[in-house]
Write a structure and sequence with these properties.
Helix 1 (2-18) runs parallel beside helix 3 (73-94). By secondary structure, the chain is α/β, with parallel strands linked by helices. The chain has helices spanning 2-18, 44-53, 73-94, 107-117, 125-128, 151-154, 191-198, 223-226, 229-247, and strands spanning 26-31, 58-61, 99-105, 157-163, 175-176, 204-207. Strands 2-1-3-4-6-5 form a six-stranded parallel sheet, sandwiched between helices. The chain has a single domain, classed as Rossmann fold (3-Layer(aba) Sandwich). Keywords: Disulfide bond, Hydrolase, Signal. Residues 1-19 form the signal peptide.
Length: 248
Amino acid sequence: MRFFVERLALVAGIASAQGIQCTDGLKMFLARGTTEPLGTGLMTTITRQIEQLIPGSTTDDIPYPATLFEPTYFVSVLNGSTLLQEAVSEYAAACPDGKMALMGYSQGAQVVGNAICGAGYAWSAGTILPLIPGAPPITEPLPLTFPPLPTNVTENVVAVIFFGDPTRQPGASWNRGSASPKNRGGFNRDDSIIQYCERYGPRMRSYCDDGDSVCDDGTVSRPEPHISYVQNYGDEVVEHLVAQYNSH
């Protein structure tokens, strides 16, 4: 938890010292997957294409732990969700006409989902950590729920992309890929939270393929689907981002 507090202080210090740089193109905020090194990770190919197709576009990766342990997964998710909300809020305030896109892979998809849809009681850090064998002791309170960003902050978020989302909701209109429409992600959001996701409607796309048990719980798990989303859907995502940018 100390990492969480220290990182927030560091990011806040950087923001106040340097100010927010508004971009002429699309501002992309990315949350990488578990254990990926700091950077754009699996989604690099997409961001580079957008930077070429939409002049002036820039990318910020969210500097959260993206860990399973030290800190534990759900503390890492809480960290990333908070940092992403701060980044979007600060950019929206400084650049009221600036268009944004949010993208997340694996754990990063849960981070993005928490930021815009919120997280209910079931999968919050405050309720999960005590149930995990070997999890570090909780030395300070953690939230039992996580509220979504308000719509006045996200009105210029033109696109939201999830790859291999652990909180994938079955039957959602934004689902894409070959995964069963009946299967949920391993940490699916409860129905009371989905209403906040639905307000993003056609702006959102969540890619999940059969065999990726992270987002398609109940399938026969294979490693290839979870790491192949950009290869399989990258061009489609780029087209979606460009179209959303041009239509808003």
